[in-house]
């Protein structure tokens, strides 16, 4: 398994899922299953909730530990845009880490987001690999949509929020958790809540 999520954003995702206690988490894009495993671990530790993962690449089926997946995981292979959309209104937490092109972002911003329930947590990966995303990227498109609706977001990407990252890194050192699970430190994820009337 090649981890894609960095340690801090993986831990924040885990803690957010433990706090939110969602009934249905929807993961768009799993690649090798690293994020899938973190999400399933949180649901297992909650003792409730299920995960629906959709991806063109089914390699997560080979790497996610069966004891973590249990009966709480459903994997749908294929392009999320062509798969049944029965999950949209039932989703309690949306995790997006798939196609990072602007066109894909426009699809989910106009097709998925308007049907999500207000108040659910959403995370979008690979937004802040640098201080500003490429102008024609998924990240730029998502940030424009959020700004146009005056929706704030949280990130610990050092390129964008170095103070937040350093404060969390200091706490991790204080707790004896500084040894990395993986070597990535970009933590480019953003987190926000769906507003009413997207």
From TrEMBL:
Source organism (scientific name): Amycolatopsis suaedae
SUPFAM superfamilies cross-referenced by the UniProt entry: S-adenosyl-L-methionine-dependent methyltransferases
Keyword Transferase appears in the UniProt entry: yes
Source taxon at top rank: Bacteria
InterPro entries linked to this entry: SAM-dependent_MTases_sf (IPR029063)
Name of the protein this chain belongs to: Class I SAM-dependent methyltransferase
A Gene Ontology BP annotation from the UniProt entry: methylation
Keywords of the record: Methyltransferase, Transferase
UniProt GO molecular function: methyltransferase activity
């Amino acid at each position: 398994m090649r981890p894609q999520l960095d340690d801090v954003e993986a831990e924040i995702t885990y803690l957010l899922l433990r706090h939110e206690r969602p009934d249905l988490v929807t993961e768009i894009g799993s690649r090798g299953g690293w994020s899938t495993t973190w999400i399933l671990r949180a649901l297992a530790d909650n003792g409730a909730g299920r995960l629906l993962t959709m991806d063109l690449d089914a390699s997560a089926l080979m790497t996610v530990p069966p004891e973590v997946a249990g009966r709480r995981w459903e994997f749908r292979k294929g392009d999320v845009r062509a798969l049944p959309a029965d999950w949209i209104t039932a989703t309690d937490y949306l995790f997006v880490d798939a196609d990072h092109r602007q066109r894909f972002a426009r699809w989910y911003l106009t097709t998925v987001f308007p049907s999500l329930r207000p108040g659910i947590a959403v995370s979008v990966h690979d937004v802040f690999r640098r201080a500003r995303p490429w102008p024609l990227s998924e990240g730029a498109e998502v940030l424009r949509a959020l700004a146009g609706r005056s929706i704030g977001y949280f990130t610990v990407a050092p390129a964008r929020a170095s103070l937040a990252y350093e404060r969390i890194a200091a706490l991790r050192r204080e707790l004896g958790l500084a040894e990395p699970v993986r070597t990535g430190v970009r933590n480019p994820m953003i987190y926000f809540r769906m507003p009413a009337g997207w």
